[in-house]
Amino acid sequence: MSEEERNGHGPLHAPASEPLHIERGTVIGIPVVNVPGFLASIRCFDEDSKQDLNRLMPGKKDGSAPQQYAYAFFNKVIVHLDYLIDLHTASLGRRNSLLATQCEFKSSEIFKDVADIVQPGELIAEVQTIFGDVVERIVAPDFATIVVGVEGNPVAKTGSRVIHLGVIGDTFEVAKGDGHL
């Protein structure tokens, strides 16, 4: 017996045998399910449990705090859906194919990678809200640089470094400062 059957739910997905065609309906977007983890900038539910909500769905009514959280979300939201598309931000130090797709449309925290040359004035990153609204565009300084480091955490807090640039050539005197963008 599967976990879904033990909890009284059917399978969470069926194999796609033909293309899906939907003529009307409602799209519900939930930018963050694991709010406690998001606020703490960690993948797991909380520091104490070290449990990943993705591994706990559909949760347990009388389980641990993360299991109860998953159960409540599953039973208040998921069971009412006809279709579910689950998109994840990559974990710290990882990249998802979704990130590559987002970069094509210039809607993600960095457009350059380590060792890329950056031209003066080039758009190198955007900072967005969890809803995709751009709150800041980061443009390269007025001299040639090279990317020496990029932030690996997809969640940036105010003041977080998103990219670290190194100066190319003899422009160091012009670029002197604390070296952070």
Q: Layout of SSEs?
A:
Blueprint: H1 3-6, H2 35-39, H3 65-76, H4 97-104, E1 117-118, E2 123-128, E3 134-139, E4 145-150, E5 163-167, H5 172-175
Antiparallel strand pairs: 1-4, 2-3, 4-5
Description of the structure:
The protein is α+β, with helices and mostly antiparallel strands. It folds into two domains: about 1-85, no CATH class; about 95-175, Beta Barrel (OB fold (Dihydrolipoamide Acetyltransferase, E2P)). The protein has five helices and five strands; from the N terminus they run ααααβββββα. It has helices at about 5, 35-40, 65-75, 95-105, 170-175; strands at about 115-120, 125-130, 135-140, 145-150, 165. The strands form two sheets. It has a three-stranded antiparallel β-sheet with strand order 1-4-5, with no helix packed on it. A two-stranded antiparallel ribbon has the order 2-3. A hairpin with a 5-residue loop joins β2 (about 125-130) and β3 (about 135-140). The longest helix is centred in the middle third of the chain and has 12 residues, at about 65-75. The relative contact order is 0.10. Keywords: Hydrolase, Metal-binding, Zinc.
List the main descriptive attributes of the protein structure presented here:
5 strands; 5 helices; 181 residues; OB fold (Dihydrolipoamide Acetyltransferase, E2P); 2 domains; disordered N terminus; alpha+beta; two-stranded antiparallel sheet
Q: How many separate domains?
A: 2
Oligomer: single chain
| Rounded mean pLDDT score | 74
Kindly estimate the percentage of residues that lie in beta strands according to DSSP: 5-15%
Total number of helices: 5
Radius of gyration: 21 Å
Q: Helix-strand pattern, N to C?
A: HHHHEEEEEH
Domain Succinylglutamate desuccinylase/Aspartoacylase catalytic: 25-100
Keywords: Hydrolase, Metal-binding, Zinc
Protein name: Succinylglutamate desuccinylase/Aspartoacylase catalytic domain-containing protein
Organism: Sporothrix stenoceras
